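Running co-folding for beta-L-fructofuranose.
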Amino acid sequence: MAAHVVHDGDGNRIRLTEAARFPNRAVQVHGRLHWDVLGLWAGVLEGLRAANAAAPDGIASIGVDSWAVDYGLLDADGRLLANPVCYRDARNAPARDRLLAALDPADLFARTGIQHQPFNTVFQLAAEDEAALDRADRLLLIPDLLAYWLSGATACEATNASTTGLVDQATGTWRHELCTAAGFRADLLGAITPTGTVLGPILPEIAQATGLAADTRVIATASHDTAAAVAAVPAEGDRAAYISCGTWSLVGTERTTPITTPEALAAGFTNERGADGTIRFLRNVAGLWLLSESVDAWRRQGLDVDLAELLAAAGRAERLRSVVDPDDPRFADPGDMPARIRDYCAETGQPVPQTPAETAACILDSLALAHRRAIESLEALTGEPVETVHIVGGGSRNELLCRLTADATGRTVLAGPDEATALGNALVQAQALGLIGPGPAARRAAARASAQPRRHEPQGAQASWQQATQRLLGRTP
Ligand code: LFR
């Protein structure tokens, strides 16, 4: 995505232009789920070539963001030792259980602020191949790895570092005793890099391969995609929550202090770091992953599924006929999602969705309900009312999900921007370059000026969603 800072009567805003797009796929090899990181790298280079060709005034800087927690291990010569493993690989859950049995889970949460997701880097490292750890000299999270290949500088950007589960929430530095507990050397981790640090110019070979000017800077933007997306939420006032909606629905608020109470831990909330040291207090809800995996499964079975038609049919379907808890662990791994949804509904004595439209309706109703559950927990845990829900990210394009979320939560939903991660990434770079003033308020103002969210007011009775919540909670298998 190419971004252009516009200064006009409305203040500073960012105009985004899509220069290129490439898919990201997890690949199963020899019993392990990997990312195709070299495919991603090829996509980055191709994208930079396209962005450069589309920017007659040149490109000042590049910022890399991606999903969180995953990493590559490098040897002493800076060579990648193995293809990074995908966080959805099955190796993590047993390692988490082992480590949590040895540590005090509530104490760990209080120290790091991070929810005990099986895929946290700390648990992945506890499951890591010992020989690889012995040979490794350095660990880089995915965006830091790509930024290293672009600039030659090794960074450990702060927003993404917090998701490892290895950072002290109070000091923002690594907790070395957790490295020891997980069985790896703390010196694999470099010093944490403040968000917005200029890492340096691109390497000469990158300038040559992409046509970019040799002085194009690489900036450690908010490299965790959710941190970038939340940095771009066009919120006004403090009664707004966000849902960063894509593969996951990340439901939360931005705060200045973490909440690490046993109640927050039990409700599945986490405290990740945002740009400017803000805290993203949020819950991971399994998001549109359930739908995208279902579409993949139907296509593998030879069904010709058109997403727009499927969503239209799901919109016409009977509401709340059957609902699942999207956070049930059975939905976390790649696979035949429609079959798992059928099993769940059968086990809980609900009508079993048969057609793709019925299945999609079940998924979207269930996500809206899970959004409601997370917003209600959020209010209870923070003691602060939520009046408006901003849905940002690719999921904000899903009109049906936005409408159902307004209905289920009984709150106004403001949908968009859909490219919130790219916008937040660019906002942080623009601040690092001094094109936008420093601090969260200036960024938020520029985020608002850059977006035109669509409004969805809740329609219809709350009672059916209230009953469905009770039904879901009462029937959890
Ligand atoms: C969203 C996201 C979430 C993180 C999950 C795994 O893309 O980054 O914030 O919990 O992916 O990395």
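Result summary
Residues 228-477 form a domain with the Nucleotidyltransferase; domain 5 fold (CATH 3.30.420.40).
The pocket of beta-L-fructofuranose is lined by residues 67-69, 87, 224-226, 247-248, 250, 284 (CB under 6 Å).
Job closed.
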